[in-house]
Amino acid sequence: MAVTDEAIEKIKAMIVAGELAPGDRLPPEKELAERLGLSRSSMREAVKALEVIRVLDVRRGDGTYVTSLEPHLLLEAISFVVDMHDDDSMLEIFAVRRMLESQATGLAATLGGEEEIAALEREVDGVDASVSIEELVEHDIRFHREIVRMAGNAYLASLIEHLSSQTVRARVWRGVTEGGAVERTLSEHRAIAEAIARHDPALATSLATAHIAGVERWLRQAASA
Questions:
Q1: Which of 38, 135, 165, 188 is in Cβ range 3.0-4.6 Å of 211 for a Cys bridge?
Q2: What sign for the dihedral angle of Cα 118, 75, 88, 175?
Q3: Could you tell me the maximum CA-CA distance found in the chain, to the nearest angstrom?
Q4: CATH homologous superfamily for the domain 74-224
Q5: What stretch(es) of the chain map to CATH 1.10.10.10?
Q6: Closest to 53 in 3D by CA, of 97, 15, 3
Q7: pLDDT tier at 138 (50, 70, 90 boundaries)?
Q8: What is the pTM (predicted TM-score) of this model?
Q9: In whole angstroms, what separates CA 168 from the centre of its chain?
């Protein structure tokens, strides 16, 4: 194991063991390096690496702190990875999203409360076929975000959020190039919302799978054109 990797692992072990909690300030660099039996240079590189992935927060003139370690912070790097991939890889990302979000939709149908379902229905009722493509995309993001939140799993929600946020371009392309995309999208959303309102997880899961697969199918056709 490289020295920097060893330093990263040792700092991570301190966090996992509870020696460092979210919001805690790390000991001074020299003290921490001596404590872990590492050079100050390797410790410095480890801190930089952990800052990039949002585990640590380096505050100039103040010190280095453990972040909140909230899922939305720790999973931010996924957005960067997704952005760097081509259309073929995007298809694989869509496949992951389809599997995760369809199951999350089933959970929403099981766990969704009255207020959450009412909010989802208002979101669906608040748009019609006259919306612009940009407005449709914004609605689509809100619609799926509200469903995933109902699943009650912050890590799942953050993971899907970072996968889905990078698919905005594909949604726009689909809306621009495919006739009837607005009507079809809103109809599919309404059907999913109704299945969730009826607390029918099997139907909600199936509808969500078909809905996301439709975008995936379009992307595959566009990539091969």
A1: 188
A2: positive
A3: 65
A4: GntR ligand-binding domain-like (1.20.120.530)
A5: 3-68
A6: 15
A7: confident
A8: 0.70
A9: 13
